[in-house]
Fold each of these.
Amino acid sequence: MSGYHVRIGKVLTTMQALSDREVSDALQEQEKYRPQEYRLLGLPDLVRGGGAASGGRERLLGEILLDKGVIGRDVLRTALMRQWQLSLPICRLLKKEDMAAVVELLGFINSTINLDELLDRIMIAAKEVLNAEASSLMLLDEQTGELIVSVPTGPKREELKQLRIPRGEGISGWVAEHGEPLLVPEVSEDPRFFRRIDQVFGFVTKSVVCMPLRAKGKTLGVLEVINRQDGKPFSGEDAELLMMFAHQVAVVLDNARLQAEALERERLMRELIIAKQIQERLIPKAFPEMDGVRMAAFLSPAEAVSGDFYDFMVTRERDLLIFIGDVSGKGIPASLLMATTSTALKILLEMDTDLATAIETVNRFLSRGDLKKEFVTLFLGRYSPHRRSFHYVNCGHPPPILVHSGGQIELDKGGSALGAFPEERYPFTDVSLQPGDVVLLFTDGVTEIRDPSGTLFGEERLAGVCAGLRGMTAEEILYHVRDRVLAFAEGAPQGDDLAIVVLQAI
């Protein structure tokens, strides 16, 4: 039984309560329930309320032995107490009844998820085992550095709850700042003692032991016991006992934090799935069928949802309305603003609102002072196949490239990004589209994608890709541009949302 960790199976065989073969059989049974990523459990290996394992958790050895009927609960309880005495020298300081209380408490720790009840029981046990008048669990407010009295026990319990102790003040503040335990047999002789609490609540503090609560190198708060009930000052042995409780509290708090983070991730994932489903309904799955034009489009979010968007509409005059946009940022906030902007613009366009008025209305809405300053770049165009006219405005968006028989033109006329200036005006410009001409619309995720060395794809490289587009179909153009962009990245992580839309006159 050398070393800090004494296994419960070894204790049971030493007690002659089990044979080596029975322990070996139980260990083999335990392997069936062991997680793939197994972390050695801390002592003691307590039975967690009995019964079969659920939810894929590991079954404890004592639990298996009880289920097999080879030992009874009294034998297991005795073995657990002996295990602790052998494993942690500090436990030899405990009287038999106190050891029993500790074993019962640690069994409760392994069987409950009610954090308030659990911490309350730990603090009461610490107070009783150390024969103290009062005890307090104080948690560190990371924003202010204050200590918040979260779980007090003793005569002034209710009055002390949520009391804040200024950063570095008093014995507890010193312990929190330095991350070191402190034993003060007589507080009247220690200048660090924070007298205001005694003055306010009429309590007389004589002796204090205070322990930092640390997990993974981080201080979470402090654990403090005050005044022995027999009137004696606390001793070094008392400090060692409190250290045991402080360790348990730190483990409980860290586990609670990890559980809360897991629940928050689960909640965010559910919200992300809903956001993704909503967004997918906003992006057109098919293109309107109309004479004189062909379309193709591609959207690749950098995360589960996108701040890029595009849409198509056919007017009563059989003209094509097409827009593409990009919200600053990415993820859920960008996707929400994307949905708002795209929906608002589409409603205005469906109402036959003048194009300039529609753009200016959306811009004023996004420029409102009560909205967080986010910007939306947008390109809106109206193509009339019978007139071969493309009427467009660019609102701070990467200029689409018009590829025609004479070369390439950037469609950059317009104004600032939407949401930047509430009184901005957005004049439209007309260009002609002849059969075979192509308008390549894209978001900045295309030109700003990087290869593994960090080099940008860039506008010049995109212009080179566009040089040979005429003569291809709309779908061929889309695949050609998309494949060239993704091949350039060579599998490097996509840093931004990426959208490509092809408009081809025929």
Note: Residues 146 and 167 are 5 Å apart (CA to CA).
Amino acid sequence: MAKRRRQVQPQSGVEKAFGQAMRKARKKQKFSQMDLHIATGLDRTFISDLERGIQGPSLRTVFRVAKGLEIPAAVLVENTEMSPQFVLPADDK
């Protein structure tokens, strides 16, 4: 049997900041990840990956999550930007 690779948990970045904003909003609504799955149709494991910053959301996903949490997408984006983990990738120029 193949040895399972361990996932690297990001410490900062846009994805990590979005995940924290998403988790905070979900817990404020007293939603479980399963509740959010039901409200959005997103897979529960994908929701977990988003919250841990392993996956980055598409624009469509940001709007689906916001609608499921019954908050404006702008609030999610603003809370992402205000997070201490929010770090834009360095320019590759």
Note: The CA atoms of residues 6 and 54 lie 12 Å apart.
Amino acid sequence: MQTRMIVNTKDISYNIQILKHHIRVPIIAVVKMNGYGINIENAVDVWYQHDVRFFAVDEPSEVYKVFDCGYKDIYILLMSPVYNKKMLINLIKRNVILTVVSKENAIAVSEAAKEAGRQARVQIQIDTGMGCFGLSHKKTDELMDIYTTDELIFDGIYSHFPYAFEKEYKHTKRQLEDFQKIISWLKEMKINYGFAHIANSCAAIRFKETWLDAVRIGSGLLGRLPCKVELPLTKIGFLEAEVVDIKTIHKGETAGYAQLYTAKKDIKAALLMIGRITGHGVAYQNDYLRFSHMLRGIKDVFKARKNTLSVDFQGKKLKIIGRMGQQYTLFNINNVDIRIGDIVTTDANPLMTDALIERVIVNSY
């Protein structure tokens, strides 16, 4: 072991209890992106222990990973459209709930259902502003065409908030209203649409108005959200890293990429497998389309310069030397009794940590 991600399932269980107590409608557990970095199997297991039976993923390969968990009484929603007939037939036979985003997509699913010899369960995704998958909320004629497509069982309808971490309840409110107009129209047309959901983790925690018939919780499981929330969620995941090597950087010598660091005196340094591969120095790409985002980006730069990365060793903080590396980084160990093979710890987001880093589950059920 050089570096490994530690995931405590008791902490995950705690977060689920907090979320279920706060949210008073059914939860769809989103376990995409390998269970938000903690492994799909781990995420599914803990959700299941807390009586959640509805799961959602983004990719067909993730569907089969959920099935591999061995639970027979669960429902799986695939949140991306599929057109490949062979794949559709396989998914329909497994009773996977498919997402439909257009009339063309509905026809593809219908044809596959006929060949599979059974009706396909589907949910319709409505685009209210995300601009990715989904039928525009303005296209009610096409929506009606979808609902008249043969061989489809309409299990639900949903949309997605791209900006639920906004400071004010403005863009999210407008999207919710557009989605609710669709729901009202369907009721007027006496169309059985199943159940409706739109809230992601940020929206479900912050805005009760968005709950509808169910909510989807993904990143909320990790307690790592792009917005401040009042719930006392625990951050899931931290790294344990071995000291790979120890060396002396002499006065006047440089260290790290771009030679940003020059030693003012002799300094002892520990080399650790901590870097961008472990999620450090990596962030979601900043969006500067709004002036407020640009100001936030500038603020983050000054904050990062002030709060340099450090790791913990027996209660002591070891500060970074130079620039963060892709895989290995140097840390200052002056006046610290530390040896090669000793273990340091540091906070890390499982979602941002490379999948090659071993995940170790502790306090498992």
Note: The radius of gyration is 24 Å.
